[in-house]
Amino acid sequence: VWGVSEGTAANCLLVATVGAIVSYWPVGQLSSKIGRKKMILCGVTLLAACFLVSGLMKEMTVLMYVGLALVGLAWASINVNSFPMVVELAQGSDTGKYTGYYYTTSMAAQVITPVLSGAVLEYGYLLLGSADPNAGYVFLFPYGTLFVALSFVTMLFVRHGDAKPL
């Protein structure tokens, strides 16, 4: 999308990963105060905003590294809180069952989305009427934004599993 080298793309992933690692502990602390669901919703909102802004960018700039660190923070806000919410939903002997549900759906999404997004990216140029097969990559960030926004909607229906105040 931004026409960067593979090395620069790897650095982008590294910045997002470092942003997540640096955020894990503070996100956990803040989640204890405001609640897991609110923290996940904040993370989903931030992630969607980062994807949306990234989709509007036409080239890689130094400012994008800040955005990538925010992607890491957003991902940490979601990741740190998801599994504990599942465990809170379970009652004693059901913990294993709920863990199975969580990992089954999570892994299914990780199997399905590369196929689906790959089809969108590979054949997206046809939607644009372009002869350039790489033109479909303009759909990368809108695709991510759409599915992150959908996760926000599904999160609104979650009623249990939040951290209980002491």
Describe what you observe in this structure.
It is built from five helices and no strands. By secondary structure, the protein is mostly helical.
In a nutshell, what does this entry contain?
The protein has helices at residues 6-34, 36-56, 62-89, 95-128, 140-156. With 166 residues, it is mainly alpha-helical.
Helix fraction, binned, reads over 70%
Number of strands: 0
Radius of gyration (CA) equals 18 Å
- Please state the structural category: mainly alpha
- Secondary-structure element string: HHHHH
Number of helices: 5
Largest sheet: none
Features:
166 residues, mainly alpha
Element layout with pairings:
Elements: H1 6-34, H2 36-56, H3 62-89, H4 95-128, H5 140-156
